[in-house]
């Protein structure tokens, strides 16, 4: 554990990513304390006389949006939405994927084969399109978006976990454990799961980046969480027509999505190197 | 090769069949009752029963599926709610621009990813390598709509070098293709890098160097040619990734393909079009995977055919 932290610490980019995530998570969840205004309050002086959004100023740090609302406050609350969906959806996806992957990899047989054929089938659907179809059928709310994204994203985890479990269960030590009378539960929990933990940690982190991006695309297309709940993708969608006159309305939430996704990617990559030093630099 | 081909084809057909089961199942999840929607509020139970019968909704489920499948195979995807026209010809008419865009994106990602990967591999562990790999993370972390809008702002609005969206000439293609392909470029640069590093370790590379061959020739002729083989085979898999991307990119750039059609269908919740495009996309992905599977052993005979 100590050597793991030592290796992770050497990766400056991953460390920077970790710090940024900590800041963004804190900012997102303390949004109601930090935010200068109510994210949904429309200010009388929040628009110019012609009705255009205001550029960044001392009063409105990141300017106002097309409805005269404070962009900084909306950004903070939007971060809450993005992080919450990212962590929850990916948590469900990793749990579902690893349970199904371990089952398929350890049991094999027709159960394993049918699980894996089902993942083949799921891979034939583009994630965004499937998510759009599902949110078009179900009414999108926070939990529906979480479930839809989890339903679309568990497949990758299941395939990786399956491959690792299948390789591990061929090993002699598993055979030895079985010969000594260990039951399936004990083999899975004591002998297989510990070896899968690094993979799950890495996917648990990298997957959040994918999830954040998918959520932002859904919300940009109007199929994410619904207004008035602020979400970064939706903030960009709403200001798209004012983009050339008020580019900060796109660039600021856009940079926020980018920074959040990038941080999770950097930390995930750093974790992969730190957890499996043999793969370093490849 | 032939039994391999037959097995791959059969597997693809099986997946397509599974896709049709899922899309059929999804239409049953729709909370709104299609009969009530067609019949209207003031309809009598008798009329509703008649419509139910006309739509075939009173038949057993397997029979409904068989009818759905036979219509799908004949290219009948139903009627659009909002446009009052058939879905299949609508999608077909929007396909050429999307295919053109994907072609442009494949070109863009290879032109970015391959040189960047070779460069990083030859500078392994040094500043250039680290910079290239960090940039590749940046490209895969950028949401495509943000990238697209940024490119539009810089190159079309501020610079005025390229058109502000639209369709028609080659200059219209540049920015959307770049937007769609940049993330893939980052991905390919990583793949190329590790593939190059693997190849440059081989004995025949050492032999080439020992003969006194100039380093650029070793890298580009002996190294690169072998390193890109497994990567070229993966281009077919990009279709799936692009299928998600076009919805966003075509919307940003006003590109009249199936992505824009999807976007319009989302706004009016036109389910037949949404399901139709999802089905078409799945067919493309299965085809792309099939091409990748068939190309791989042709390109690299060492790959065992399973």
User: Approximately how much beta-strand content do the residues of chain B carry?
Assistant: under 5%
What fraction strand of chain A?
Answer: under 5%
Shape of chain B: flat
Overall average pLDDT of chain A: 83
- Output the radius of gyration of chain B: 24 Å
Unreliable stretches of chain B: none
N-to-C span of chain A = 23 Å
Count the helices of chain A. How many? 11
Q: Structural class, from secondary structure content of chain B? A: mainly alpha
Q: What low-confidence regions of chain A span 5 or more consecutive residues with pLDDT below 50?
A: none
Count every beta strand of chain B, where a strand is a DSSP E run of 2 or more residues: 0
As a whole number of angstroms, the C-alpha radius of gyration of chain A is 22 Å
Helical amount of chain B: over 70%
The separation of the N and C termini of chain B measures: 10 Å
Throw out a few tags for this protein:
A: 282 residues; mainly alpha; 0% strand; elongated; B: 306 residues
What does this structure look like?
With 282 residues, chain A is mainly alpha-helical. Chain A is 72% helix and 0% strand. Chain A has 11 helices and no strands. In chain A, helix 1 (2-10) packs across helix 11, helix 2 (12-29) packs across helix 4 and helix 8 (172-179) packs across helix 9 (184-220). Chain A is elongated. The two termini of chain A are 23 Å apart. Chain B has helices at 2-29, 34-39, 45-54, 61-73, 87-122, 127-141, 144-158, 170-200, 203-210, 215-227, 229-232, 235-253, 258-267, 271-299. Chain B has 306 residues and is an all-alpha fold. The longest helix of chain B is centred in the middle third of the chain and has 36 residues, at 87-122. Chain B has 14 helices and no strands. Chain B is 77% helix and 0% strand. At the A-B interface, helix 5, helix 6, helix 9 and helix 11 of A face helix 1, helix 6, helix 7, helix 12 and helix 13 of B.
